[in-house]
């Protein structure tokens, strides 16, 4: 009992000593776990511990110890359960919009190019650039995918990543997302992820995957070469890389602009990243890309904004492959830990959140330390359902996993640990769908650094960039009178050396009256 009592007492003491950080944020880093709902966090935490030969439940994710935690309401303006485009627009521009659209407000009709004209809304990326800060984006998905696209693109349809995806008629006024990234965002310092196919012409073979005719560019432009030529024309220090060897050779001290496109489509799942069956050229980890980005961006005396996405958590869930989703969650956790190591809590606001959740659940009554990816036990023995079949702790509400366990002749697959520990194993689902869906419940927000205490309850998702902008004095909060700069960061109460400011002024007023009366 003393262990639990002392642990709680220490937590109270730490909370009592906590002081609000009202410094202006020089740097802001937003970590976005795509699909990383609360139901993902707990099993990821347990898996991390079990990979270290612990029981798992007592383990911590790097953001678990952040001082400020809140919830985010994720619905799109027109959908109860959201998609990643509408959510990206919310947590990057500060405005909620409809499902499937990026960087345009809800007056826009999905897929209608004309309706998007004049409906553009801008993100904290542009707000930061406008104030002289450096900006970067790192993702394990395609750099033209929903979350990274929300940083720079304006489109009525998230699928218009390349010109091969544009409708043949009616989209003449709209640029594909890859073209927007290169044509309209020349000052973005760091871009890393997948998605080479949308930057190379259809008649140019991909460096690693070969044939690029299906989704390569129809306009004949080589956007990678154009990016390089533009940087060279300005005599800038730049590098383009497409594999792990080239990536590790990049010196951040002598590189100011970095474009890394490590796959034709999305980068590999973390579980597959070093498997030669899936990856031959080699890819950096999310933590390695995060470190490289920070080392490049932090050279600017005005600071930076960096968006880091664990993009493939979502894809693992859509395939009902919990192993892959959880491994990618742990990979993002390692990236957050690296960012904490490389930055100061005094001048860098770090926010960790998700765009949405998934139809993913952890249930049964497994014993402490039971393998989180294994069969559920009961009283030390393998648990059986009402039909005397084994079952797992992790399940999905819908998705393709249903077919893998389908009843045949009144029987179904009786699982063993050999099945469930395989990274390709698909969890059982209650409802058969070809693609598992998102979940609509609130997601967590974890924050540390200047003004992180503004995350304190249940917020609308579009609140997130407003806090980041207020803390770093950009966008609608660029004037000192409207942002963190208007609050004295030399106030002694913020450093805990005096409690004067924490006492209501009315107290001093009353004391003055008493003093005068006694005189």
From TrEMBL:
Cofactor note: Binds 1 Mg(2+) ion. Binds 2 Zn(2+) ions.
Membrane-topology descriptor: Lipid-anchor; GPI-anchor
Top class in the EC scheme: hydrolase
Pfam families in UniProt: Alk_phosphatase
Record carries keyword Ribosomal protein: no
SMART domains: alkPPc
Membrane-spanning parts: 500-518
Molecular function per GO: alkaline phosphatase activity; metal ion binding
InterPro entries cross-referenced by the UniProt entry: Alkaline_phosphatase (IPR001952), Alkaline_phosphatase_core_sf (IPR017850)
Catalytic residues as annotated in Swiss-Prot or TrEMBL: 84
Top-level division of the source organism's lineage: Eukaryota
Known cofactor(s): Mg(2+); Zn(2+)
Binding residues annotated for Mg(2+), in chain numbering: 34, 145, 147, 309
Subcellular location: Cell membrane
Main localization (coarse): membrane
Positions of Zn(2+) binding: 34, 314, 318, 355-356, 438
Keyword Cell membrane in annotation: yes
Enzyme Commission number(s): 3.1.3.1
GO cellular component term of the entry, any: side of membrane
Keyword line: Cell membrane, Glycoprotein, GPI-anchor, Hydrolase, Lipoprotein, Magnesium, Membrane, Metal-binding, Phosphoprotein, Transmembrane, Transmembrane helix, Zinc
Annotated family: Belongs to the alkaline phosphatase family.
PANTHER family per UniProt: ALKALINE PHOSPHATASE
Record-given protein name: alkaline phosphatase
């Amino acid at each position: 009992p003393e262990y639990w009592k002392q642990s709680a007492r220490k937590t109270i003491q730490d909370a009592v000593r906590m002081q609000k950080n009202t410094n202006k944020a020089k740097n802001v880093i937003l970590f976005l776990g795509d699909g990383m709902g609360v139901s993902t966090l707990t099993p990821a935490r347990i898996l991390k511990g079990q990979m270290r030969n612990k029981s798992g439940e007592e383990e911590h994710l790097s953001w678990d110890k952040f001082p400020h935690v809140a919830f985010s309401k994720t619905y799109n303006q027109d959908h109860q359960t959201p998609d990643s485009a509408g959510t990206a627009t919310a947590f990057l521009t500060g405005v909620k919009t409809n499902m499937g659209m990026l960087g345009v407000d809800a007056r826009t009709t999905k897929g209608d190019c004309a309706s998007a004209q004049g409906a553009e809304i801008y993100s904290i990326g542009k707000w930061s650039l406008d104030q002289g800060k450096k900006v970067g984006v790192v993702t394990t998905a395609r750099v033209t995918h929903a979350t990274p696209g929300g940083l720079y693109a304006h489109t009525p349809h998230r699928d218009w990543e390349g010109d091969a995806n544009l409708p043949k008629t009616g989209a003449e006024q709209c640029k594909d997302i890859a073209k927007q990234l290169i044509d309209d965002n020349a000052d973005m310092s760091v871009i890393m992820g997948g998605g080479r196919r949308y930057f190379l012409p259809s008649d140019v073979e991909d460096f690693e995957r070969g044939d690029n005719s299906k989704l390569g560019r129809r306009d004949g432009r080589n956007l990678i070469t154009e990016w390089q030529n533009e940087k060279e024309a300005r005599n800038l220090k730049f590098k383009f890389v497409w594999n792990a060897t080239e990536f590790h050779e990049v010196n951040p001290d002598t590189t100011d602009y970095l474009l890394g496109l490590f796959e034709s489509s999305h980068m590999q799942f973390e579980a597959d990243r070093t498997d030669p069956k899936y990856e031959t050229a080699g890819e950096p980890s999310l933590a390695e890309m995060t470190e490289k980005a920070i080392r490049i961006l932090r050279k600017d005396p005005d600071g930076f904004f960096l968006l880091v996405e664990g993009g493939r958590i979502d894809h693992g869930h859509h395939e009902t492959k919990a192993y892959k989703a959880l491994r990618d969650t742990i990979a993002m956790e390692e990236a957050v830990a690296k960012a904490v190591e490389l930055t100061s809590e005094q001048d860098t606001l770090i926010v960790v959140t998700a765009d949405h959740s998934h139809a993913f659940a952890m249930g049964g009554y497994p014993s402490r330390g039971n393998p989180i990816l294994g069969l559920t036990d009961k009283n030390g023995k393998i648990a059986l359902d009402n039909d005397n079949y084994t079952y797992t702790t992790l399940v999905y509400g819908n998705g393709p996993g249903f077919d893998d366990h389908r009843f045949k002749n009144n029987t179904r697959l009786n699982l063993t640990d050999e099945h469930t520990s395989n990274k390709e194993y698909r969890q059982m689902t209650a409802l058969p769908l070809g693609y598992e869906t998102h979940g609509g419940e609130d997601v967590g927000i974890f924050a540390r650094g200047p003004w992180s205490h503004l995350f304190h309850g249940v917020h609308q998702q579009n609140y997130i960039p407003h806090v980041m902008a207020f803390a770093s004095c950009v966008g609608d909060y660029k004037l000192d009178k409207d942002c963190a700069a208007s609050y004295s960061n030399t106030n002694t109460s913020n450093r805990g050396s005096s409690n004067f400011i924490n006492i209501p002024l009315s107290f001093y007023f009353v004391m003055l009256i008493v003093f005068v009366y006694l005189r």
